[in-house]
């Protein structure tokens, strides 16, 4: 018997490779989007800080803008720096 | 009587002049008397003041004669036998004999009249104007007093024949030369009829004796005529029927009454006609109401009939009957287990549309459709049916409704202006008695079928969820699916259910589009080679899709290798993201070459994997294969049976399968048992989801019972309603809760006694 696969149409779900499931700011899943967005993924990306915590980009930017003095990570209170890996 | 010779002579004389004073036997003798004798009697009577007495005596005799002889003879005709219906003679003969006798009596009374004139008698019996009138009165009274119970049967059949002669059009089967009554070419039926009527009229008996018969007969006749016309025919008949009534029934009645001088013909006919027209409308409406369920189902072919009913309803006051009948018909013919939900929905849509014709205010609709709503709410597949027919291709009421929706919206706003107070009409009286609290009139007027369906459940959410499931199924099963079409539907549904509710579906469709692009990008990558298996992947945003059914499956190493490559490609394309594969989902196009045959099939990944393993090795033990594929043996056996039914694999011994390289001709074509199994949804079923929700409730219940020791069912339900049900998609009813709790009791997780639930110690 010879079996030829002419077309394999599979299904997969994408997910962020992060050390947590939910965004620490909006408490929404990373794989979903921040409260201001409609579409997940490319339109509502994640960003990592040097402290290795990660958030929805829109969430952390909003947070940083609201902080007048120090730009700190809301989780660990270290100074927030984007980790551009 | 005085014994004087004068008086004796006078008595003899009066007996001679009025033979009726004698015994009956002699009364028919033709006695002659002379004018002088008559004058002598008159003088004597006057002189002695006996004229009144003599008149009374004669009248008494006349009455006696009628009572004992003539009228019984007349009625005896009716008892003779059940002569065959078309025979006109029975009644005619009766009337004729009565008439002859009447004439006889009339002769006597005319003698009496003469006597009265000579003797100046002023008093007239029974306060009538003339002796003749008194005679007629006596006759009428006697005839009616002695009438047997069933005499109408005879008159009815007599006049029915008469009517049939009149209604030539309805009996075109008869040759026009033929008589409808006796089936003979030349007969005197018509003559008989006329004679009978003339005689009855002359005796003033027409109306008292057969008036009721006329009414009954015309009613019966009209009713059967309408019934004959309306049977299985939903045309508009009301104008045709009215013309028929005027040209046939009324004309006939006029003929019947034409000899009757006692009444004013035109006036009487006018009232009769009004009554008959009224009756016609009434019967027509009733007959239509009895057919209403069929009429509704046949909509829009039955539109003329509906228009008729709409015209007739205000004239007949039959609305309550209509509601009752239609509701009953719905319950017996539609709302039971034998009817599929799709059919109920079709009927429901037809009901809405046709009742909108009957009653634009929608009050009628509301009360009639209430039972349908309640029933549909109990059916489990209603929502699925609604949503699938909404989005289905092809002629379909609901889909049409969805498409025209946009246009309808604007019109309603225009016509529903409040400033149009001059044409305002109050809601019909039924509005007050309908069980539902009266809603905003505006909402009732613009009946939108889809909203009505959605309102059955009180929320959009169920429908949106169902649509999401349907869409997910469709997208997963047809990879080449026409996303543009789906997007168009989505836009239409958004108009209906609101943007935010359908946001999930939007993401799902976007996933499909994005997946195509990503697939392409990955394949363009030089590092990715599609050497082993041509792979394309639908990449979903898990959070936005309905929960998938979880199933474990280890793919064949070749496919797994390809998938690994694809994942790597994805990871480089989209930094920090990876793929979680749903191995059991998807479609595989597969070509199978055996020694003597080839197959081209679309199968599930699991089935493809099975075959790939059999390609490596001809024979597998069930246990062994299930270990390799990481799935349960029972599931695997089910899947293998698909290939067995195709004649590709066979079970050589128990739990041992091998490839059937050469077709087994002896094997009869096995039925494709796996067909419905293939159609299974990839989504977790509603029941699964519900169970999960109940699991959440369970923690509440345990907490409740820990604190309060024991609780009855309704308390538990009440408290859950306050605290736990907010987040759930569906609220559970007390009965559902009871089923759930009873299951827990069976598992010994609860104790039920004295109608109280307690936790076991």
Automatic annotation (TrEMBL), chain A:
Name the Gene Ontology molecular function terms of this record.
Answer: cullin family protein binding; ubiquitin protein ligase activity; zinc ion binding
**Biological pathway:** Protein modification; protein ubiquitination
Does the keyword Iron-sulfur belong to this entry?
A: no
A GO biological process of this protein is: cell division
Q: What is its main location?
A: nucleus
UniProtKB keywords: Cell cycle, Cell division, Metal-binding, Mitosis, Nucleus, Ubl conjugation pathway, Zinc, Zinc-finger
InterPro entries attached here?
Answer: RING-box_E3_Ubiquitin_Ligase, RING-H2_APC11, Znf_RING, Znf_RING/FYVE/PHD
Domain (RING-type) spans 34-77
Q: Where does the record place it?
A: Nucleus
- The molecule here is called Anaphase-promoting complex subunit 11
**Quaternary context:** The mammalian APC/C is composed at least of 14 distinct subunits ANAPC1, ANAPC2, CDC27/APC3, ANAPC4, ANAPC5, CDC16/APC6, ANAPC7, CDC23/APC8, ANAPC10, ANAPC11, CDC26/APC12, ANAPC13, ANAPC15 and ANAPC16 that assemble into a complex of at least 19 chains with a combined molecular mass of around 1.2 MDa; APC/C interacts with FZR1 and FBXO5. Interacts with the cullin domain of ANAPC2. Interacts with UBE2D2.
Q: Which organism is it from?
A: Dendroctonus ponderosae (Mountain pine beetle)
Q: What does this protein do?
A: Together with the cullin protein ANAPC2, constitutes the catalytic component of the anaphase promoting complex/cyclosome (APC/C), a cell cycle-regulated E3 ubiquitin ligase that controls progression through mitosis and the G1 phase of the cell cycle. The APC/C complex acts by mediating ubiquitination and subsequent degradation of target proteins: it mainly mediates the formation of 'Lys-11'-linked polyubiquitin chains and, to a lower extent, the formation of 'Lys-48'- and 'Lys-63'-linked polyubiquitin chains.
Q: Name one GO cellular component term.
A: anaphase-promoting complex
Family that this chain belongs to: Belongs to the RING-box family.
Automatic annotation (TrEMBL), chain B:
Its cellular-component GO annotations read: anaphase-promoting complex
**Could you give a GO molecular-function term held by this entry?**
ubiquitin protein ligase binding
> In what residue span(s) does the Cullin family profile domain sit?
416-644
- Keyword field contains ATP-binding: no
Q: Which GO terms describe its biological process?
A: cell division; metaphase/anaphase transition of mitotic cell cycle; protein K11-linked ubiquitination; ubiquitin-dependent protein catabolic process
Q: Which UniProt keywords apply?
A: Cell cycle, Cell division, Mitosis, Ubl conjugation pathway
Which domain of life does this protein belong to? Answer: Eukaryota
Looking at the keywords, is Electron transport present? no
Q: Which family does it belong to?
A: Belongs to the cullin family.
The protein depicted here goes by the name Anaphase-promoting complex subunit 2
Q: Which organism is the protein's source?
A: Dendroctonus ponderosae (Mountain pine beetle)
